[in-house]
């Protein structure tokens, strides 16, 4: 198929906006919310009942819209920093004007609140607070050491609490899973700070590596890796997780590799590799939820 100039321009705009909202990340989160609902939060319901639950679909779509809006406002505030840290991605993102991005931001947040209103007033309050928290993080907290990292990790797992509140399932195992995810995401955020030192330093971001140094950051990552072994131990020995034990043994091996590479790393490329290891752990974890009960689909149709 041959595209004319106008069609190519529209296509480039689409890919630019897809890059800004991190469409691939949102897709993973949507899949994670559904798998978490099926295998963990609503494991007493039939597969059909969960998949065809319109309220769940609305909550997932509201989460996706809110997260997309969050990526836009984050991109808006970080445009200068990204030009230094990620020049290629930044050039693609700039194909869409800042005014257009902000328009999308307000539309997406409005859509999220409207969708939430279909479920309940509590859902409206939840997503309204979530939207404000994302903006406040991007505007103020992101430049602060430790607080910014913790806030980012909390905001990343918040969409799953929307589903948790919907199903009202407060089993301890759920919070152990959440703790594991929170720790891995916290490690990823700190690794990203190491990766982005150049841009953060140029724009006076008070991140942990800049405020306390790379050595302290590496020590903190080592401590976080050790703490991550606690929820892994509990999930392997105290709870029924089916064949997902394979994933957690793999995580232990990857964390050992991560630490060995961490203390030898001293460049952006090295930290990018470390970032990708943690990203792999997170994404693999989503699909490995299927290992909790590989026969579940057949049993619960």
Quick structural gist:
This protein has helices at 5-20, 23-41, 47-51, 54-77, 79-85, 87-93, 98-119, 121-139, 147-167, 172-195, 197-202, 208-212, 214-237, 245-262, 268-288, 296-299.
Describe what you observe in this structure.
The chain folds into 2 domains: 11-168, Tetracycline Repressor, domain 2 (Orthogonal Bundle); 171-301, Four Helix Bundle (Hemerythrin (Met), subunit A). The longest helix has 24 residues, at 54-77. The chain is 80% helix and 0% strand. The protein has helices at residues 5-20, 23-41, 47-51, 54-77, 79-85, 87-93, 98-119, 121-139, 147-167, 172-195, 197-202, 208-212, 214-237, 245-262, 268-288, 296-299. The mean pLDDT is 88. The chain is mostly helical. It is built from 16 helices and no strands. The chain starts with a helix and ends with a helix.
Helix content: over 70%
- Tell me the β content: under 5%
* SSE arrangement, N to C: HHHHHHHHHHHHHHHH
Q: Sketch the major β-sheet.
A: none
According to CATH, the fold-level topology of the largest domain is Tetracycline Repressor, domain 2
Keywords, please?
301 residues, mainly alpha, Tetracycline Repressor, domain 2, Four Helix Bundle (Hemerythrin (Met), subunit A), 16 helices, 80% helix
């Amino acid at each position: 198929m041959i595209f004319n100039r106008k069609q190519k321009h529209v296509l480039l705009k689409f890919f630019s906006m897809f890059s800004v909202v991190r469409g691939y990340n949102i897709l993973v989160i949507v899949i994670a919310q559904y798998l978490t609902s099926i295998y963990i939060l609503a494991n007493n319901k039939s597969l059909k009942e969960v998949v065809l639950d319109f309220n769940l679909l609305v909550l997932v779509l509201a989460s996706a819209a809110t997260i997309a809006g969050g990526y836009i406002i984050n991109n808006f505030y970080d445009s200068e920093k990204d030009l230094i840290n990620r020049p290629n991605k930044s050039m693609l993102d700039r194909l869409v004007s800042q005014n257009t991005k902000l328009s999308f931001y307000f539309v997406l947040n409005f859509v999220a609140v409207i969708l939430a209103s279909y479920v309940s007033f509590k859902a409206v309050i939840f997503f309204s607070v979530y939207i404000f928290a994302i903006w406040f993080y991007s505007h103020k907290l992101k430049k602060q050491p430790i607080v910014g990292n913790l806030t980012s990790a909390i905001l990343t797992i918040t969409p799953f609490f929307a589903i948790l509140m919907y199903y009202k399932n407060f089993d301890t195992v759920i919070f152990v899973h959440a703790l594991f995810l929170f720790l891995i995401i916290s490690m990823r955020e700190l690794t990203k700070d190491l990766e982005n030192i150049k841009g953060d330093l140029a724009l006076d971001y008070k991140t942990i590596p800049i405020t306390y140094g790379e050595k302290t950051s590496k020590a903190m990552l080592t401590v976080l890796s050790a703490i991550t072994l606690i929820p892994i131990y509990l999930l392997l020995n105290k709870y029924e997780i089916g064949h997902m034990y394979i994933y957690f043994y793999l995580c232990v091996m990857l964390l050992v590799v991560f630490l060995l590479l961490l203390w030898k790393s001293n460049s952006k490329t090295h930290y990018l590799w470390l970032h990708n290891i943690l990203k792999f752990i997170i994404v693999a974890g989503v699909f490995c939820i299927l290992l909790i009960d590989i026969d579940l689909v057949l049993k619960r149709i």
